[in-house]
Amino acid sequence: MISIPIARPIITEDEIRAVEEVLKSGMLAQGRVVEQFEEAFAEYIGAKNAVSVCNGTIALCAALKNLGVKQGDEVITTPFTFIATANSILHQGARPLFADVDERTFNINPDDVLEKVTSKTKAILGVHLFGHPFDLQSIREICEDHNLHLIEDCAQAHGAKYSGKRVGCSGVGCFSFYPTKNMTTGEGGMITTSSDEIAEACRLLRNHGDSGKYFHTSLGFNYRMTNIQAAIGVEQLRKLDEFNEKRIKNAEYLNKHLKAEGLITPYKDEKVEHVYHQYVLKVEDDFPMSRDIFMNRLQEKGVGCAIHYPLPIFKQPLYQQLGYDDAGCPVASELANKVLSLPVHPALTDDDLRYIVEVIGDMA
């Protein structure tokens, strides 16, 4: 039985050897290897500072907290993403305000963002969804015109570019290194910023407000990354461009060969370098079968697939309990009923790609 997973982390002897070195050193918690990873990551992104934390959700929470987002504030974000993005706003006591998304890129729509700015708006939190950067220029201009903070959720876009610059260096960038991401540390996150003040505040927050051994100047938590995670990250970062090039090549193959009526392949804006964290089709009404039947048949044939995301965040039970309605986001609601992700990860072989195309061709 053929089995092609929707995602697969690539861990080689390089990562295993790096972790072994840390284990043998006896220095397992946050230390010099973490600093090495932070320095390399900041240089790669083009940011002045990179601050590691234990996961991507904490990266978002730390960024929001240290930008002064608090109870009574509003943060405009997208409803079409993983729930952690909006939940990080709730954790500050603030209210997520959802702006609709672009029907082609699936990213936050600047026109709707502008409609939803109020006197309570403190920040805009955009997501570079599925590896395609959102319209940074337009969102930056809105932030500048209304004196708002810009936060980039880069959890799905390691190495992606907008107008030639890597994402994560326009506002405060937040990355996740979960195993399915374009690079991994197992679990882990990173905050990137040009502000020394924000970076230092994030460092204090992740380590009990400790500015010197047993000298605590603010209230913090234990949000640290370990040397074990960082050792994996150092090796993964060295391979990230290679991983992304393979993702792009795989996506281009699928774009070229998936020609079935009713299947819309991913859009890419000319200003961006899309790194295809996910390869997301739209299954339109004129496709021979419903999306759910299509997904079931793919899985029966051994082709991993998934729906990212089956519900806009405002339709999640938590947000319904908080009193959210449709949030005026019809595009997000429509996309949730149409999208389907296919494998695009760098572990795919040429035979895997041909098989995926063949299986879909037989159904179309």
Task: Describe the protein's architecture and organization.
With 364 residues, this protein is an alpha/beta fold. It has 2 domains: 13-236, Type I PLP-dependent aspartate aminotransferase-like (Major domain) (Aspartate Aminotransferase, domain 2), CATH 3.40.640.10; 240-363, Aspartate Aminotransferase, domain 1. The chain is 39% helix and 16% strand. The protein contains 12 helices and 15 strands. The chain has helices spanning 13-25, 32-45, 56-66, 84-90, 110-116, 136-146, 196-206, 227-257, 291-300, 317-321, 330-336, 350-363; strands at residues 49-53, 74-77, 95-98, 121-127, 149-153, 161-162, 165-166, 172-176, 189-193, 210-212, 215-216, 263-264, 272-273, 279-283, 339-342. The protein has a 7-stranded mixed beta sheet, sandwiched between helices. Strand 2, helix 4 and strand 3 form a beta-alpha-beta unit. Helix 1 (13-25) packs antiparallel against helix 8 and helix 2 packs parallel to helix 8. It is globular.
What's the gist of this structure?
The protein is an alpha/beta fold and 364 residues long. 39% of the residues lie in helices and 16% in strands.
What's the structural blueprint in terms of helices and strands?
Layout: H1 13-25, H2 32-45, E1 49-53, H3 56-66, E2 74-77, H4 84-90, E3 95-98, H5 110-116, E4 121-127, H6 136-146, E5 149-153, E6 161-162, E7 165-166, E8 172-176, E9 189-193, H7 196-206, E10 210-212, E11 215-216, H8 227-257, E12 263-264, E13 272-273, E14 279-283, H9 291-300, H10 317-321, H11 330-336, E15 339-342, H12 350-363
Parallel strand pairs: 2-3, 2-4, 4-5, 5-8
Antiparallel strand pairs: 1-9, 6-7, 6-13, 8-9, 10-11, 12-14, 14-15
